[in-house]
Design brief:
By secondary structure, the chain is α+β, with helices and mostly antiparallel strands. It has two domains: 45 residues; 138 residues, Peptide methionine sulfoxide reductase (Metal Binding Protein, Guanine Nucleotide Exchange Factor, Chain A). 29% of the residues lie in helices and 21% in strands. The chain contains four helices and nine strands, in the order αααβββββββββα. The strands form two sheets. It has a six-stranded antiparallel beta sheet, with no helix packed on it. A three-stranded antiparallel beta sheet has the order 2-1-9. The radius of gyration is 25 Å and the shape is elongated.
Length: 196
């Protein structure tokens, strides 16, 4: 720098340093967001029974509007126009909030109501039943014990092997096909769905 003026060589050097600094900053920010999205993906696609239930604010940000409406707003779904009512694939149905395995495809049947219908849950200990007197009906609502997600209803059914039928909403679940169960943390549940 001669006489207080910046020469063109010095301008080039400063520009190079600023450009390198910006590039490093962008790289660090990019790496941070990459790991953040990987963590989010892992939390929403794999199962860890020790992972805490997220707050409602986090849940609302992760769920589709229809899923939120069903599990937290007591909404419903149109029969025969929902994702899993006629799903015949082998696998398990897991809570849309925590990924907890709740129903197995081997217990699913066509209940003629246009919603997923099961004879039993994977474990009765994972569900709670609460009286539901909405719409001038007396029913038992089924909720996930851990996440408190509203799943659907349970009804008496003399034709079912368990004498009950669980009519649930597709929006309350994610489906994990048998070929993905091991990679997504559900290996312990494979015996429930594998052919004997």
């Amino acid at each position: 720098m001669r006489g207080g003026r910046i020469t063109s060589e010095e301008k080039s050097a400063i520009s190079a340093y600023v450009g390198a600094g910006v590039a490093v900053l962008l790289a660090v920010v990019g790496i941070y967001f990459f790991f953040l999205t990987q963590k989010e993906k892992k939390e929403t696609t794999t199962f860890d029974p020790n992972r805490p239930v997220p707050s409602d604010a986090v849940i609302k940000g992760r769920l589709k509007a229809e899923e939120w409406s069903v599990v937290r707003g007591n909404g419903s779904q149109t029969p025969f126009q929902n994702e899993f009512w006629n799903n015949e694939k082998v696998g398990i149905y897991v809570d849309v909030i925590t990924g907890e395995p709740l129903f197995a495809s081997v217990d699913k049947f066509d209940g003629k109501v246009g919603l997923p219908t099961f004879t039993k849950p994977i474990s009765y200990d994972l569900l709670v039943e609460v009286p539901d007197n909405t719409n001038e009906m007396q029913r038992l609502q089924v909720r996930d014990k851990r996440s408190n997600a509203r799943l659907g209803h349970v009804f008496a059914d003399p034709d079912s092997p368990t004498k009950r039928r669980y009519v649930v909403y597709s929006a309350a679940f994610h489906f994990v096909p048998v070929e993905q169960m091991k990679d997504r943390g559900y290996e312990a549940y494979l015996p429930l769905v594998e052919k004997k």
